């Protein structure tokens, strides 16, 4: 075994289920299969486990979940179905959506009762499209509970580490609640105490660990699943590349992998589950994205190069076509380090919606409601790429000190290295800022003046920033009269360049409601299943709300393994 393989491989190569991929979908499938009594193996291409799930926000969108029911929050599946029908549009698959809605809470209940997995419902977590029927302000989204990474033991070092920019103080993870406490620390004793406890824990961690062991968001989700899978003795092979599926008489019977430098044929009596994370990092992904003529940056791990799709297609499965979007979009800024390293930062929830921060295009004009979802933000960039790609977030000294922007930290933080690197542009006046970022001064002056006049009144009639429940949930609840609006007044002024990017691919293998991969004729390929981003998005590439990738990942990972177990028990 290589030194990076957490669990030594058994001597034989025959299993009931082989799962390719160790993100939320793959681990949910493996855990379910093991709990159902099946001999299970997880194969991971990378040297670390967790995939894109480990660096995600860790939220799941599952309407009708038990926590929402108990809390008296919106748990109507009918309204959720109506909302998805209007959000997804032409690609709405009634059978797939119905299965997701009916079995999502079942999957969550099973996994929470039989593992370390633990979520808490967000009472106020609005969907992303308030203009559509069935929209809800809370109850559908759950967030993962924090987790002690020390419970992974020696396997903690193999958990995929979040990007540098998503850690604070060099290695401490924080969630949205922690961030709000840090922003309020100077004006709230409760927040100051919360932050002090986090810092004390982190200081202790660094005495014996390379980073903090208090895990949040996607790291907590993957760690909880992985701890449960490993505790059941399920082997997890890292650094293992799937080469081809074993197909006999039209059915998938296993997979050939490259393990420790040699090819190993793994037999899978019940089937193979593809959960390799999609193809966001594949070179050929460029042909499935809008042609903007500008750089595009994916947050997908480098190992997510479409292995599952390629394997599935070679075995006769078909990929989805004509999705609303082939990827889940997010604006990304890029820091180029002096040593040549590239650091990417996805602008999801920490800055765009905050008061005193606006986005301007190449002409120096606003073009979007900055507080809308990251997916909608990039769609606005794509609407007129010549004008809107790349664009800039700009703010004044007050906003930067209060909220930070991108990799620039709030408060008394020293952001001068980011200025020196050219990531954060700093200027003593708007004319100087316009020159620094190459936009027309007159246009920028007009844009800022108009925005400032409207922000002072707490309204944005031009783009509606701060006019929806979701907008307000992302703003500053302590800022009035509008949590998302404040004028840009105090020098120095700052700018960060944003590029179109994505969080992963939506286009995957077509499946039925049991997660069976389907051929071009709509008939299942026996023994082949797909989940996570290897499965064609149940949302058809739309982005209805927070957690709409991880929710289906857990659900259909569970469904795939359950279907295999039911088949084998009935044989």
In short:
InterPro entries: FAD-dep_OxRdtase_2_FAD-bd, FAD-oxidoreductase_2, FAD/NAD-bd_sf, Succ_DH/fumarate_Rdtase_cat_sf. The protein has helices spanning about 25-35, 65-70, 75-90, 95-115, 175-185, 190-205, 215-230, 305-315, 375-385, 385-390, 395-405, 415-420, 430-435, 440-455, 470-475, 550-570, and strands at about 15-20, 40-45, 60, 120, 140-145, 145-150, 215, 235, 240-250, 250-260, 260-275, 295-300, 325-335, 340-345, 355-360, 390-395, 425, 495-505, 515-520, 525-530.
Helix-strand layout with pairing:
Layout (H helix, E strand, L loop, with lengths): L13 E7 L3 H12 L4 E4 L15 E3 L4 H6 L5 H12 L5 H20 L5 E3 L19 E4 L2 E2 L27 H9 L4 H17 L8 E2 L1 H15 L4 E2 L3 E8 L2 E9 L2 E13 L22 E2 L8 H8 L12 E10 L5 E5 L10 E4 L13 H10 L1 H4 L2 E5 L1 H7 L12 H5 L4 E3 L2 H8 L3 H16 L12 H6 L18 E13 L10 E3 L5 E7 L19 H21 L1
Parallel strand pairs: 1-2, 1-11, 2-8, 11-20, 12-18
Antiparallel strand pairs: 3-5, 4-5, 6-7, 9-10, 10-11, 13-14, 13-18, 15-16, 16-18, 17-18, 19-20
Helix pairs in contact: 1-7, 1-16, 3-4, 4-16, 5-6
Organism: Variovorax terrae
Protein name: FAD-dependent oxidoreductase
GO molecular function: oxidoreductase activity
